[in-house]
Structure formats: structure tokens, C-alpha cells
Amino acid sequence: MKIKIKNLVVIVAIGLLILSLAACTTNNKGEKQASSQETTEQTKDETVIKFGLAPDEDTAAILRKYEPFITYLEEEAGYTIEPYVGADYTAVIQAMDSNHLDAAWFGPSEYVLATDQVKSGVEAFAKAVQTEDSVKYRTAFVVKADSGYKSIDDLKGKTIAFTDPASTSGHIFGRYSLVEEGIVPEEYFENVIYSGSHDAALLSILNDEVDVAAVSSRKIPGFIESGVIKEGDISIIYESVEIPADPLTYRSDLPEEVKTALKDALINNPDKVKEVLSGTEFSHFEEANDADYDIVRNAYKVAGLEPEI
Fold first, then answer.
1. Same domain, 224 and 99
2. pTM for the complete prediction?
3. Residues 52, 144 within the same domain
4. Structural domain contains residue 1
5. What CATH number does the domain containing 270 carry?
């Protein structure tokens, strides 16, 4: 059975996308900003690079966490960087497809979707390497600590929360892992829901709204540190295989000098990059290529999903 990602996306996200894109294309006076083609004709100092960030937790938290990174990228690449957090993963991909975004920090599955959906083309030019002491990137199946659930076998007929249909750890690799175990979520669980984000999925566990949630393993320590959950509130009963590193991408039709400036800023200054990433689970960037994400394409195939939005 093939399941199209677009059939899983909550309809309300479409309305949020329209509002988000409208906001991105007007300045404070309500005037339209220059198109990407017009932008490339400006001087380097005037050029604005619209940079998408994955909406995997609260928007304010994302912008706060990556503010040092955005500031560094502006200073080192020499362009004004305008961050954008979409209503969901699909919104970021669609914003890039409509040229409202020039570059984006995607999750692996969002990148695979973008390579199929963005008409101008998308290139992975760097990948975010985790710190040595950080949790490996996997899908973690999480239950409430006092629930009594010890394994996936205990959850037949229960309710599971994924995060977003296009999320790598919050859906794709979670579903892939279950199918590898012979479990089709819609047949095994009584209800399959999408919470919208990793923190929302964890809160749905604590609020007894669902029995198990599939979330990013590497985000759990940060949620404990920030107080979203407390240590001991949850238990991990199952994990997926390790997931490839997040790719940083840009549209293929960007001017070569812009591509070079962005790539050099991230690859050639590892010490400075490590400093600006200190508030995240990442330490530096390495060069990336499309073949790094073939395992994700295979996960889609095995899970019976089509990489569409």
C-alpha cells in the first residue's frame, strides 16, 4: 500500500502556509520585497538570503536557538540572512519551490521531498555533524514512564502520535522501523495522529492523550533541559536505525558566488562554527552530497510511502 505524504498533512496547515508566505513577501510597510532574480542584481551588501529552518519545535525556541548561527552566517558570507520557520515541514519545501526561500536547513526526509518537489532544483552542500557526546539521531518510541508499557508488543490497539508527515525522525524512520517489524501503523494501532512537532508529541504523552509517540531521540535531552518534560517522565521502549545527518541546502538556480559564500562560511571555519552552534546538538559542518540520503529514499520505499507533498 502506497501512502502519499500529501494525504497525511492536516488541512489547516495550508491556511497557515498562505499566511506565512504572505508575511515573508512583504516588508513592514506592506510593500513586496524584491524577487530572487531582482535580489541577485543588487550589491552583495544589499542581497537578502531567505533561509528556512525546520519547524521541529516551538518557533520562538527555534529562532532563539539558531540566532547565533544566523548572525555568524550573515557576517561570514556577507549577505543579510532572513530566517523563516514554516507552519510545518511542507511549508518550508513549498516556500523554496515558489522561490520564497533561497536556502534551508532540512531534515533528511524533507531534503528528499524537496529534491522531488522544488522545480528549480535543490542541492545539499553541507551536513550538520552532531557533538560527540550527543544522543545518536534515531526515532525514539516514547511512553509515559508509569504506563506499564515495555515494548511495541504492548501497544496493539492503542494510540500513537507521529509528529509531522514529512518529519524524518518523527514519522518516516518511525514508520519504516515498524514496517520492518511487520507492523502497519494504521492496522496495528487504534488511532494514528500527527501532533505537529516533537515537543507537542511528548506533551501528548504526559497529558494521556496518546499511548506512544515517535520523536527525535536527539531532542529529548534538550526538552528535559528546557523544562518541557522532566527526567523520569518518559521511557524509550524502541528506537530506529541511525538516521543520516541534516543537510543544509540551497536552490540550484542561485548565483554561484552566493553558493560559494554560503558553503565556505560553514565548511572553512570549524572553530567559529562550533562556537555559534554551542546551544545546539551540533558541532560543525561537513560537505554533503545527494547520495548520502539514498538510505532515506529506501526508507520511504520500505515504509510504503511516496515522497510527495
1. no
2. 0.77
3. no
4. no
5. 3.40.190.10
> Do 210 and 260 belong together in one domain?
no
Question: What residue numbers bound the domain in which 279 lies?
Answer: 48-132+244-303
Round the CA-based radius of gyration of the chain to a whole number and report it: 19
24-56 pLDDT, tens digit each: 443 444 444 444 444 444 456 589 999 999 887
Retrieve residue 142's grid coordinates. 516514547
In a domain, 262, yes or no: yes
- The pLDDT tens digits for 209-256 are 999 999 999 999 989 988 999 999 999 999 999 999 999 999 999 999
* Residue 176: inside a domain: yes
Q: Is 104 contained in some domain?
A: yes
Nearest alpha carbon to residue 138 among 105, 166, 167: 167
Based on the fold, state whether residues 200 and 263 are members of the same structural domain. no
Q: Which three cell numbers stand for residue 182?
A: 511487520
Query: Which of these, 58, 169, 179, lies nearest to 110 by C-alpha position?
Result: 169
Three cell numbers, residue 47: 542581497
Domain co-membership, 211 together with 70: no
Provide the number of structural domains found in the chain. Answer: 2
Nearest to 16 by CA among 94, 122, 116: 94
Dihedral of the CA atoms 183, 185, 187, 193 (nearest 10)? 170
